[in-house]
Design goal:
The protein is of the alpha+beta class. It has one domain (2-105): SCP2 sterol-binding domain (Nonspecific Lipid-transfer Protein, Chain A). The chain has helices at 2-14, 65-72, 78-83, 93-105, and strands spanning 27-33, 36-43, 46-50, 58-63, 87-90. A 5-stranded mixed beta sheet has the order 3-2-1-4-5. A hairpin with a 2-residue loop joins β2 and β3 (46-50). 19% of the residues are buried.
């Protein structure tokens, strides 16, 4: 899971066309699964790993390791997983929409066979 999230962070930081939709002030994203969690900040300065979160500017995504993997890997959209009750998301509607856009726009490119 760590490696997948790391790859997602690298994609977000490399895709310069995402810059206009990134917030000026940091938004904290907390991925939680089983007994683990990973926290990141997202802003115009990029996406970076953090160890503490500002609760006022945070979105928390709870789910199984498999559900979070399919989200970060672009297999299923955030809203699809919410409807299937595979994940739970807590945060403002605006921040959740931003994350959904980032997951979609930064999903890995797959070659057609």
């Amino acid at each position: 899971m760590d490696e997948l999230v790391k790859q997602f962070v690298e994609r977000v930081n490399a895709l310069k066309h995402l810059l206009p939709i990134l917030p000026e002030e940091a938004l904290y994203v907390c991925f939680q699964w089983e007994e683990e969690e990973m926290i990141f900040s997202i802003s115009k300065q990029g996406m970076h790993r953090k160890w503490e979160v500002d609760e006022q500017k945070a979105v928390t995504i709870y789910g199984t390791k498999e559900a979070l993997k399919s989200l970060v890997d672009g297999e299923l959209k955030l809203q699809q997983q919410l409807r299937l009750k595979e994940i739970a998301v807590f945060g403002s509607f605006r921040h959740i929409l931003l994350l959904e856009s980032l997951f979609h726009l930064a999903k890995p490119y797959r070659h057609a066979s």
